[in-house]
Amino acid sequence: MRSNAASYQKDNYKIEYRQPEWKKRFVPSKIPRYLPGQVKKVVLLKDLKLFNEHRYKIFTAKPKIDCKPPHMPKARLLRLDKLNNDYYALKKISDENKKLMIKINTINRLHGLTVCFNPRANLHTTRWPAYEQKLKQIQVDNLKVYKRIMAKTSNYNTKLLNKQWKNNYERMTKQARFPFSIEVNKSLDAVLSEKPSISVIPISYSVRDAALRPRVFMEFSVQDYLPLGKIVFELYRDVVPKSVDKFLHKIDNIERKTFIETSFYKIIPQEYCEIGDHPRNIKKVNSIFRDSFPQENFALQHSRPGVLSLVPTESGTNNIQFSITFEEYRAFDGNRVVIGKMIQGYKNLLKIQDFGKKVGKPRYRVYIKNCGMASGHAINMRNTIFNNQ
């Protein structure tokens, strides 16, 4: 066995590299290519001999071209100067680690005083929970103050003040030389009542027959418990009776499958808002919006704010999902069945509008906290609905 040796001397250290040379040796095969008993033994040995001769020819074959690896200049490829620098850098790191291990060993044996806690290490993670708890406490305190303010009553005799004002107003009206008038700011509901009607068909409506125009209310909240106020709607049962009956069934359902806890999934400022299950959740078993029914008619129009209409499905039917317009929105005429209009709570509707975005997704969760029939309409309408089903 021969070997090649290469060595060089650096800093009184002599390094040698040895690489042994070995020669290939042919080993004939002893395993025949036929299975035992498949052929006679003479044929088996003859075939094994021919196979080994073929393998030997391949083993001893020499190439007709130069297939040796190219010459590798070690000095240029190995870069001994870089290797030496790495060697000294690693040696320095090793010496520092040894010193550190000696100090750690000394501390473990002698139990020296060590201060390894950094109070500012997790400051960014520990400060936020306290700040979040502080915000929640502020919210609870604000709610308590709000309830106390709402529970307070005036210390003045309001009936007496109103009577005195009425007498003073009549006296000033009689004594004035010119027509006397006082400018009074109208409420938003009064402004809403002056808007155009949603119906272009003259309908004879009697106040005594409240079943033709039932009224329902909805109380809205944002997030967990912050109230937004109540909105009252008047439903046109004399124009779209079937759609209104379906809607009233979800308003005051004895099985408690109502609109309560139902959220807005689209609020577009200056246009409209939609409430109900998101279209991708309607097919769920527990959804109250699964049952669909055909569209009734398009006799009523979206000619004012606060128009209540049903949102159509992809198949052209309705499923009690409804929308409320913030302004006059004629684009829905002929596409959505209008079932009523808002008569009270315009200010609260504008509050809901403030939680919307141009893309439609609400900034916070706005949902129905409570709903039902308005006073004076509950008993009659409940009997009317269930008798017609």
Short description:
Among the domains are: 2-67, no CATH class; 208-388, Cyclophilin.
Question: What does this 3D model show about the protein?
Answer:
The protein is α+β, with helices and mostly antiparallel strands. Among the domains are: 66 residues, no CATH class; 181 residues, Cyclophilin-like (Cyclophilin). The protein is built from nine helices and eleven strands. The strands form two sheets. Strands 3, 4, 5, 6, 7, 8, 9, 10 and 11 form a nine-stranded antiparallel beta sheet that branches. The longest helix is centred in the first third of the chain and has 31 residues. It is elongated and about 140 Å long.
Helix content: 25-40%
* Pattern of helices and strands: EEHHHHHHEEHEEEEEEHEH
Biggest sheet: strands, sense, closure? 9 strands, antiparallel
Distance between the termini: 106 Å
Overall geometry comes to elongated
Let me know the CATH homologous superfamily of the domain at 208-388. Answer: Cyclophilin-like
Q: Please state the CA-atom Rg, rounded to the nearest Å.
A: 46 Å
In CATH, the topology of the domain at 208-388 is named Cyclophilin
Which tags fit this structure?
single chain, 389 residues, alpha+beta, Cyclophilin, nine-stranded antiparallel β-sheet, two-stranded antiparallel sheet, 9 helices, elongated, disordered C terminus
